[in-house]
Predict the structure.
Amino acid sequence: MDRRAIWAILLMMVIAIAPAFFLKRPAARSAGGPGVGDSVAPAPAAPAAPAAGQARERPAGSDTAQAAPEDTVLVKSPLYTYGVSTRGGRIILASLQRFQSMAKETRGQPADLVRPGDGLLGATLVRGQDTLRLADWMFTPSAQKLDVAGPTPLRLHAARGDVGVDLTYTFVPDDYRVEVTGHVSGVGPNGGLLILDLGRGFPNTEADSNENHRALAVVVKDGDAERTDFASLKAGEPKTLSGPFEWVAVKSKYFVTAVLAFDSTAGRISGATATAPASAGKHPTTADIRLSLPVSAAGSFSYALYAGPMEYERLGRIGHGFDDVNPYGWPGFRTVIRFFTVPVRWLLVFMHDRLGMAYGLGLIVFGVLVRLLLWPLNQKAMRSSIQMQAIQPFMKEIQERYKDDPPKLQTEMMRLYKEHGVNPFGGCWPMLLPMPVLLALFFVFQNTIELRGTSFLWLPDLSRPDPYYIIPLLMGLTMFGVSRVGQMGMEQTPQMKTMLYVMPVMMTVLFVNFASGLNLYYAVQNITSIPQQWFLAKERMKRQPPPPPPAPQKGKGKKEQAASKK
């Protein structure tokens, strides 16, 4: 999590509670590798998987590499273009037609999820004491090109010596999920182990490559989703994730590739490893991701590949907690924050898709709605602050009288609150209610692909900072305006002056590199709260007693006193 976000959240909480706090301030002064050692079902006594980089083929005269040239079968649908290589049956292209790359080198091109020179689903077969690197075998495809209009299979076959491999990829036009089934002949009575390669991560597809690299992670699912960031890996040291798992995924900020193994009868994913290259340094941005699947004694295996965007609803339809691959919030806090993020995200997408609103306009409407819904609670909180201000003279008197007797002071303060019907905390908690929504929006703009690249007015991308710094400056100015209006009719203290001038500057500096959509929402919240602050400030000034008349000055007559008043 970005430290700036943590500081911003803390400062927003300070801003929310500080006015009420200062009003009652006098009272406050009184107090091993994939599959290693795993029991692989349904293949009993499955052999251990070799460490990354140690797999080698069984030496045999019939196993030398075939000289046929590598070819690529293009599979196209309205959503994607996948490229399946005849060398190893690997997927070497995963181009998403609806999502453009924003990286400088590939800007405007469809986002591709496979790094150059990499491949997804390159396989190594372990049977008995033999290790066969299928990723180097040449496969014969059933077609040279596929246009996907319905469920469309692509069959591939390869054989060497006594081992034959049949693969079937089944594509559908409206989903990024690819069903994979296979059969290996000659695997032996004890079955075997299939080690799949999920590549080394993603090519950069975002304008801010550093932010995209920070999001790179391996996520696995058994009971709860477990995330391992690339940046946490130690160079050259494999990170072992022990299964069994329902799925293993590699994610960037907005995209994910994953192997899904939901059918327990076919065997779950035994384990996975993530290995950063030895030259990666302290913060790796690539990692070799491998996982292991069982091959039954009959030689069969099956799983599914997902290679596409992290659209929350689409991931949710897959089930098995796959939407947790892109969790909102921090570990240990996600259950609470998702209570807010999921509805907020749904409402913004609903207003865009069903009501035809631009996302920026939807944010403005949403900000106004939140303020209107919270108007009664804020009204109560602000009136509680006015009541606290009204009893300040009595509080000071009690403090002076009992300054040497803290227990008595506390008793008298509670009696004063009760007599005047004042709740000392009534001005605080209603002001904190907008904070979860603002925090939820922070994660929505960080993780929601629907907001990626959406423009509004002069803002080219609501999920990225304002390149002209207009919105964060507007947010800071409106924060100053809210504080200035809210302090009308109040006795100015050094603390209040600090809040008035320093906090807007600090928050502007913190928010300047946050998503412009977040700044837009915050600015709308400030603007729509100014009328309420103004009405209550007027009410506060009406309740204030008139100033006492000046005492008569000695040695002056009535005419001189009247003249001095003029």
In short: The CA atoms of residues 125 and 194 lie 5 Å apart. The chain has two domains: 3-29+335-543, 72-326. The chain has 15 helices and 20 strands. The first strand starts at residue 72 and ends at 76.
